[in-house]
Specification:
Strand content: under 5%
Shape: elongated
Structural class: mainly alpha
Mean pLDDT: 84
Helix content: over 70%
Length: 90
Amino acid sequence: MSNISTESAKKSIADTRQQVYVLGGIVGLLFGLISAYVFNRAAHDTTNPVEAGLTRVKTGDIITLALAAIALVRQIAEIGRPEEPPKRRR
């Protein structure tokens, strides 16, 4: 009887993981598309249509963006951790 409950728990965990991956992929795709749209719109938002085009992105901006992305991933990972009980002072 314990085998049935163990297998049921394993299947439930696998289903939950699959749902998290699918949801994460959809949210990431939407975030990427919205970001690309906003970037493209800002890059082409000029008064002179001849000057419209992609501007060069500075290395410092890329590094800043990468650090912000790492911080976001760390925050998402912290959400998934179980809460620890508060520690008592001596």
